[in-house]
Design a protein that fits this description.
The protein has 221 residues and is an alpha/beta fold. The chain has one domain: Spore Coat Polysaccharide Biosynthesis Protein SpsA, Chain A (Alpha-Beta Complex), CATH 3.90.550.10. Strands 3-2-1-4-6-5-7 form a seven-stranded mixed sheet, with helices on both faces. β5 and β6 form a beta hairpin. The longest helix is centred in the N-terminal third of the chain and has 21 residues. It is globular, with a radius of gyration of 16 Å. The termini are far apart. The model has no long low-confidence stretch (mean pLDDT 94).
Amino acid sequence: MVGVPAWSVVVPAKRLAVAKTRLRPLTDRTDRPASAHEALVLALLADTVAAALASPPVTEVVVVTDEPAAAELVRRLGARTVGDDPDSGLNAALEHGARAVAGDAVAALSSDLPALRPAELAAALSAAAAEPRCFVADGHGTGTTLLTAAGTPLRPRFGAGSAQAHRDDGALALSGGWPGLLRDVDALEDLRAAVALGVGPATADLLATSPTLAVQLGAAR
Ligand SMILES: Nc1nc2c(ncn2[C@@H]2O[C@H](COP(=O)(O)OP(=O)(O)OP(=O)(O)O)[C@@H](O)[C@H]2O)c(=O)[nH]1
Ligand SMILES: C=C(OP(=O)(O)O)C(=O)O
């Protein structure tokens, strides 16, 4: 692709009641587990979407969700939303989102990257601009946090072992100095690692105003 593409970023967000179940051991130890869990999932989403919206090469962020609270939150931040059609899982949701974007440079971004910095995403997208399809593996090397397609279909293969699946499908693995982009939050240890890197304002505020959550985050060390 010639020139610097303007990127559309697609972010998936499940319904809160079924999202981020691997973080339940953390939120279940708080006084009000259901609301603590929802608040945590929404904070991770808010910081991810805000960082993407603030990243210079990103012209739009489209969140694919059927969750009213998530849709309202990200719209307030400046993202667009589309429904979770056809409600057939993560990859179908991402393909649906990719069809809804304006340009032909599209990136699928995990929604659980609270330590993501706008400059990190800009650097990764800049590296991705030279290739039709690229991906960034998560910190464990097995999952994927970013998948890009410029002038070609996205073909998402998220799920267990998605880094290898994206590699096998011809996407180029990118690496660079973007620790926040690698640090998706699936489990307690990931949240600790994100906090050590420095999380965005929504997650930081939640931890500052939820003593039980903050204590549990430290107590299980
Ligand atoms: N819109 C949409 N988003 C999804 C779907 N499945 C997963 N996601 C989102 O994709 C992101 C990455 O998925 P995971 O890290 O596996 O998140 P998760 O399934 O909520 O987490 P666990 O329950 O702990 O496995 C999360 O932010 C999810 O909200 C789906 O069917 N539709
Ligand atoms: C769905 C994925 O996320 P996770 O491994 O974080 O569940 C993935 O990395 O493809």
